[in-house]
Amino acid sequence: MKRAIITGASSGIGAEMAREFSRRGYEVALLARRADLLDQLSKELPHATPIACDVTDSAAVHDAVARHGPFDVAVANAGVGVTAWAAKSVADAELMMRVNYFGLLYLFDAVVPSMMERRSGHFAGIASIAGLRGLPTSSGYSASKAAIQAFLEAARVELAAFNIRVTTVNPGFVVTAMTEKNKFKMPFLMKADRAARIIVDGIERGARVVEFPRPMSMFMRLGRNVPSALWDRVIGRYALREVDPSKVRR
Hints:
Blueprint: E1 3-7, H1 12-23, E2 27-32, H2 35-44, E3 48-52, H3 58-68, E4 73-76, H4 90-118, E5 121-126, H5 139-159, E6 164-171, H6 192-204, E7 209-212, H7 214-223, H8 228-235
Parallel strand pairs: 1-2, 1-4, 2-3, 4-5, 5-6, 6-7
Helix pairs in contact: 1-6, 3-4, 4-5
């Protein structure tokens, strides 16, 4: 039986990926801070291990992997998003880097050496379409996801010689606790279970990049190549986006 570890597995895309991997016959290790939610989810799944752990604690992540590994697949999914202007979001940007980027690095550092020894394995990181180009009111979030994309792009080439696959996942808007705070209309909003199926399908076929939904992907890919003056004019209206402060999770 193949074994997968998923961070941020207590809710949202992470929980749905756990269900999807389990349906496909995987044993799953569920890593997140909220032990109560992990316990509930683990009871649904036939071969699941809940691991209460903060991904920003490198020692704790390494200990969890040492105790419960090795793993065939590792998915760095844990993430946080705070909507704020760049001039007001240094503390929030630091938080997002710790969770989104360094949380991924700590899992990578914990699982990849064993994969290199076995010359087998698959590492996937959940980035975002928002990492393809800086979005107003999402500067810190975009930066953290762009960092993930750059890191995984380099790691993919480096690890190919060890028969280790690396997948970058760039979702658009997905119905999760992270997006429920948004008061603006989210284009092509997708349910988490559908997103999870797309992601796990991509991992199982060894895709280098999994990016969805297609219309949003095409818009952002095109946006990477348009002149900055045109980009600023097109995307400027997003600087007025609003969120519900009572639903901002930190």
